[in-house]
Amino acid sequence: MFDEINEKQVIERQRLLSDMLGVSGNEEKVVQFIISEIEQYVDKYWIDAHGNLMAVINGQKDHHALLLDAHTDEIGFIITHINEKGFAYFMLMGGWDERVLLGQSVIVEPEHHRLHGVIGALPPHVVPESERKKPIPVEKLFIDFGFRSKEEAEKMGVKVGTVGTLYSGFQELPGGLLKGKAFDDRSGCNILIQTLINIHDKEIPRTTCFSWSTQEEVGLRGARTSAYFLDKKYNIEMGIACENTTAADVPGVLPQKCPSILGKGPVITLVDSSMIASKMVIERLIKVAEKYDILYQFKVPSRGGTDAGAIHLTRAGIPCGVVSVPGRYIHSPCTIIDKNDLIGAIKLVTGFLLDFSSD
Ligand SMILES: [Zn+2]
Q: Which of 116, 136, 146, 185 has the most Cβ atoms closer than 10 angstroms to its Cβ?
């Protein structure tokens, strides 16, 4: 179907994408990296007012086009106050599992240099017995960057408005598993980059538009404007959002409550809280998976939403689907995925584009 995918290159790209800081509204570094990966292959690329990166590969028929989307942002925090001793208070950006915050490492990059810190709270010894077992509200947490004063924080560029996120380094675990931060949705970013590389020198039936969209984690915002523009200009026939979704194949979860499983292939969404996936898109994805022997699974009980929720309501409506890489501990700083699911998702989306026909 297409050239062998260079697995090492995909994993190395996943490492680089995962390590980058790109909190909602501050996705520039991720966007610059993606440009460096794709610019030699695309017919055209540009960045819009919201920081969305869009690219186009021309196909044989130009009266309709297909759209692939992934979001560049990750969940994080914004600093709201720094006290006289240099401790920083913060507001969360995006849907964190708040139970994971205390004691975590964090990063900020105020002036192109990376600073590390730790999320602290009152030590248990000074907390009244009755409160020790309760979760600590975010307002009572603070970040300790090691500053001794507010002045020192400011001298290092850390001030109100500085954004950052919880940090954990990228690692390869046994059995082909990968661990890192921001796999939601740098996995999708990676899928789009590799798919673009796979198809750029092939004769594709449809012009393909790519949108690396901003601000998904705070309400599917970037994709709203990129999809509008692309549909108006290219007449989008179908769209797919590429994502990282919840896997819950861990102890204590009933099979009927488990949205997806690591190692069982890319996940095709049927329905989530932002969209009922288009039957036409689902059928095409299944056809491609079966033709090329790509393992796949359906996402079962599904909360949450994706950029497809915004895209499918664009202008007169765009039939949409979602293809995701399953990930354990999503929306924490340590997500685990299976590299074979990532490769499978790339194959599925590439096949969708190469095999596209109107019949
Ligand atoms: Zn996501």
A: 185
The set of catalytic residues is 216
Supply angle C-alpha 51, 214, 323, rounded to 5.
135
Going from the Cα of 40 to the center of ligand 1, the distance in angstroms, rounded, reads: 27
- Protein residues placing their CB within 5 Å of the ion ligand 1: 184-185, 243
CB 260, CB 297: distance < 8 Å: yes
pTM of model > 0.90: yes
For residue 306, report the distance from its CA to the centre of ligand 1, in Å: 6
Instruction: Answer yes or no: same fold for 7-74+181-354 and 76-166.
Output: no
What are the extents of the domains in the chain?
7-74+181-354, 76-166
Could you tell me which CATH class the domain 7-74+181-354 is placed in? alpha beta
Cβ neighbors of 151 (< 8 A, separation 6 or more) are none
C-alpha 91/C-alpha 74 separation (Å) is: 15
Task: List pLDDT tens digits, range 115-152.
Answer: 999 999 887 777 788 777 787 889 999 999 999 999 99
For domain 76-166, give the fold: Elongation Factor Tu (Ef-tu); domain 3 (2.40.30)
pLDDT digits (tens, 9 = 90+) for 185-196: 999 999 999 999
pLDDT at 134: 80
61: helix, coil or strand?
strand
- Quote the CA–CA distance of 149 and 83 in Å, as a whole number: 8
Question: Is pLDDT above 70 for 280?
Answer: yes
CA 124 to centroid of ligand 1, rounded, Å: 34
Ligand 1 center from residue 323 Cα (angstroms)? 11
Ligand 1 centroid from CA 71, angstroms: 7
Identify whether the C-beta of residue 317 lies closer than 8 Å to the C-beta of residue 241: no
In contact, 345 and 194? CB cutoff 8 Å = no
CB proximity list for 294: less than 8 A, separation 6 or greater: 265, 266, 288, 344, 347, 348, 351
